[in-house]
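Protocol step 4 of 5: obtain the predicted structure for the target chain.
Materials: sequence only (see below). No template structures provided, no constraints applied. The aim of this step is simply to have a reference model before the mutagenesis design in step 5. Sequence pasted as it appears in the construct record:
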Amino acid sequence: MNGPGIVLQLSVMIEIAGRPFRLRLNHCGRVRCEPGWHLGPDWGRRLRDYDLWFVWAGLGTMQTSDGEVALSPGSCFWMRPGRRYEATQEPSARLGVSFVHFELLTPRGKPLPLSAFKPPVERISAQQFAFVDTALRRVIEVRREPGGEEVAARLFAAVLADLLREPEPGEAGLERHHREAVLRATTRIRERAGASPDVAALAREAGYSVDHFSRVFAKITGRRPQTYVIEAKLERARQLLAESGLTVGEVAEALGYREIFFFSRQFRQHTGCSPTEFRRRLGRG
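Step 4 output (structure tokens):
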């Protein structure tokens, strides 16, 4: 399932749900909540901008306008004025939270009234926990440096864009399991294009039959796993031909091809030229 359409540009522009905005960061920080801490009802009533709230440690609960939500590492909220946000924490597992207050501006830089835009999501479950945690930490650090506002805004725009691509928290558990299994498989394929396991091994690792794995994989990626493997190999082949000093034969061998002829034929089928021609066009032949 894809999230709202998002396009990130270098001018700190972000497109959310088909609308372009500029970002302006306000107060931000990273805290470990003190013993006895809680977020009371007055906090939400005093909110005057958006607040991205990310839990990086601890356990607790959040009472929103839509009901109670359990808090754990990876819980994330796009908070907005006019909504209810009351939180408590487990005394033995105090919350660690990163927060970034921000505003959306028009493309010309004019402040956008909060009533003029409803965020497409409120609650997000950050699947890429390490990335979000590290990136928000860096946003907060850079924001505090002299002249760091624009760089921090760009980093934050990237984090927000990535979070909005996450599956909604309401996605069925089985669907989420399928997505996570396929993500692990595609990561393995691309990280080691020349030595990625065959489809049967990938299916076995995911706990699926080959046929079921292939159907799930195709539904999520839009391609059969065999096609995905070939595309990953040829993408890496183009990179090696462009950047390395390996011969065409050595590239083929590195990517697991037993015959240079088969490699060249497959390369031509997918790119329209042979590996040698590809390299020559780059001025490296």
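Step 4 remarks: The chain is about 40% helix and 20% strand. Confidence is low (pLDDT under 50) at residues 1-11.
Proceed to step 5.
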